[in-house]
Each structure stands twice: as C-alpha cells, then as structure tokens.
C-alpha cells in the first residue's frame, strides 16, 4: 500500500510509485518537497538538491522508540525546510527521531546528518570506511589534501589549466554543505538492526562508494540500496587517487552480490522504488560492458582521459558533471589497464592510454 503525497511543491512532480499499490494521491504545491508512504509505514522524502537530479531520497521508518531516518540529504536551507514540512505534516517531533543511518559518505546523503543530529539528539550510524572518507574529503582541513590530490590527478590526465582552478573551487564548495560533521557509530557487514516490525541485515558494497551500506529485510523481501543500484539512471563509478583502487571491478562484483537476494521492492537513493532487482542489475552490467567497448575503441591511438571523457560524454559539461565524467572515464580505463587491454604511458604529461588488445567480456 502506498500513499503518494506532494506537499507544497514547485515544479517537482510525484514520480512513478510502486506499481499497483497506490491508494490515493494528493498534490499541493509550494517550494521544496514531497513524500510518499509505503507498506510497513515506510516514508520516502524527496529532499531537494541543487544538482540535475533535483532530489535525493531520504526515508523515515517507525521504530518502537521513535523514528529512524535513512540519508537526510545535503545541508542546505531547502533540505531543512523539506524535513520541517514533512515532520509537521506527519506530526513528528524532532526529539522523536532516535537514529540517523547513512548508506554512504557522499554529500547528498551525508551532508545534513550533523545538523540533524544537533537538532534531534539522535545517534548517527554509517560504515567505518565511509566515515573516514567523509572526514578525508569534506572536512575543511583534511579535505584540502583530497582536493589537492584530485586536482593533481585530473591535471595529470589532461584537464586543461583553465578548468583546474574551477575544479578546485567546485570541490571546496562542498565543505559548508556537509558541516557540521556528525558524531558517528559504526555499522558493519552482517550487523542486524530493527525499526518497528522491520528487521534488517546490513550488507557492505563498494564501487559507487567504499563500504556503502545496503539494508535488507529478507522476510518482507525489501531492500534499501542507497546508490548502488538505481532505476533509469546509472550510479557514478569514480576513481579516486589510490593506486590500488579498481572501483568498476568492485562495483560489478557487488552488483552480483546484491542481485543474489530475493527481494520484491527496492528503495533507492534516487528516483522511484522499483521491482525486479535482478533485471536492473543485468541492465547495469550490460551498460558498463558497452562503455568499456566504446572506450577501448577510443584509445586505438594514444589519448588522455580528458579527451576520452569528452568523446564519451560531450563537451557541454558543467564543472560538477565534468568531475563525475572524468572520474568515471578513468575508472573504466583503469579496469581495462589492470586486465591487460590497454597501456598507460606515464613518460610525460598528460598520461595517455593506448589499446593493446580487444576487450572480451568477463
């Protein structure tokens, strides 16, 4: 059963809900948010973000001791207003929220957690690795190290000089969007937790984000998958400055891991809840195979990552989109390099990739 409610929304329409289970729909328009109520009292909150995706999914679960929030969103005034409107509509007092659970460290999921912890007094849970990455990437002091490392990496792979400072400013712009940082407790693979009648097992996956947490109730066959599997759009697979990283391999391995579970409905971090996890996982795998085949064709002659990126994604990218596109291009080329399909020439800058042999699907 699903109740789909848009509350005070401007230019933000209700997405497709869980097919066959909508019992009523009501729309009222204003500025920022929408929520949907599903079976087992699961509330999906469309938390606005200032990116092309427009919103991230936050979730409210009813607990015997109050409420659990999964992924509160980015720290912006619009996000704060959105949660305030939903709490008021559902008659939830902030002090009734006793847990905030984060699937991963990306700002659009993690950013508001510190503010919400201060507002509610609740505990915040995420993976140990995810917390470490949030500190490394998004804190004002240690975040500068990662900003420098990312900018050096992009420069070494062909990012033009005029875009390098824009990239640095872009990365720094996230610091206030994730502040204050929360005090965190850790959830690990296999750990179990409850929210009312729902009993979840914690699964750890990587590729989109290291030690990204997924939660499954096997009895009710439902899953909260964060951004590891998304409907209609593909999760970004980004390479970070780590010589041992192989994020695409990790992603595909853990995609198979999630697809092995028998679930009837999946609650993602973006877009609408969906069914048939196995079919969507296979679509995503085929997508990456096609991308690998296209990229290996683009390096028949030596080419740097920036040139391959523009050939793949086009030249009209914002600096925000370019960061994701270059990191994704590099993740795919690293995957090919580690398996002996391409060579990376590091004798001069920018580094260049060149095909060694045809790609064969694995």
In brief, what are we looking at here?
The protein has 362 residues and is an alpha/beta fold.
Describe this entry's structure for a reader.
With 362 residues, the chain is an alpha/beta fold. The protein has a single domain (2-287), classed as Metallo-beta-lactamase, Chain A, CATH 3.60.15.10. The protein contains ten helices and 16 strands. It has helices spanning 77-90, 107-110, 113-120, 128-138, 142-156, 161-172, 247-259, 277-298, 305-313, 319-338, and strands spanning 2-7, 22-27, 33-37, 43-48, 55-63, 66-70, 97-101, 123-126, 184-186, 192-195, 198-205, 212-217, 222-226, 265-268, 342-345, 352-355. A nine-stranded mixed sheet has the order 2-1-3-4-5-6-7-8-9. A five-stranded mixed sheet has the order 10-11-12-13-14. Strand 11 and strand 12 form a beta hairpin. The longest helix has 22 residues, at 277-298. Residues 55-270 form the Metallo-beta-lactamase domain.
Keywords:
single chain; 362 residues; alpha/beta; 5-stranded mixed beta sheet
Quickly count the helices.
10
How much of the sequence is in beta strands? Answer: 15-25%
Structural class: alpha/beta
Q: Please state how the strands of the largest beta sheet are arranged side by side.
A: 2-1-3-4-5-6-7-8-9
CATH architecture: 4-Layer Sandwich
Task: Catalogue the unreliable spans.
Answer: 1-32
Give the N-to-C terminal Cα separation.
41 Å
- Tally the beta strands: 16
